[in-house]
Design goal:
elongated; GMP Synthetase, Chain A, domain 3; alpha+beta; about 140 residues; 6 helices; 3 strands; 3-stranded mixed β-sheet
């Protein structure tokens, strides 16, 4: 948060509760990331805390089902970290899309390229497999 925005929120009595709420959510998100499995933590976000129930948004139903299975265990772990929660409620928000890590295409190692090249050479010229192997071996620009 920029210094000017933070100063504005602290200085304005009406906006100060907003800053407090943002800080609470940030702390809850940090604790959730610490206790949840990485694949769940990176595809979910803490939305809030209502009457002791932690509300978490996930991007799809599969993640929601897994998170619901783990909810009692995660709630216990969060309680152990000092979070005052009694349960976890999961919401599926398809529009929510956590920034995905950019994946770089994998490159074949020299040994793999040589092995595929040898296999390709042993196949008939009109073989579909030979064409596919040659396409895999061909260096990308």
């Amino acid at each position: 948060m920029t210094h000017q925005l933070k100063s504005l929120l602290i200085g304005n009595q009406e906006l100060r509760p907003l800053l407090t709420k943002v800080h609470e959510l940030k702390v809850l998100q940090h604790h959730f990331i610490a206790v949840a499995p990485p694949y769940l933590a990176q595809s979910s976000q803490v939305l809030g805390l209502q009457l002791g129930t932690l509300i978490i948004a996930v991007a799809n139903a599969t993640m929601a089902a897994k998170l619901r299975q783990l909810a009692p265990e995660l709630a216990t772990l969060l309680q152990g970290r000092g979070c005052e929660i009694s349960g976890i409620r999961v919401k599926v928000q398809v529009a929510y899309n956590r920034s995905q890590a950019k994946t770089t295409p994998r490159k074949l190692g020299q040994v793999a390229q040589n092995a595929l090249n040898e296999l390709s050479q042993s196949l008939p010229d009109d073989s579909t497999l030979k064409l596919a192997l040659e396409k895999m071996i061909k260096p990308k620009d």
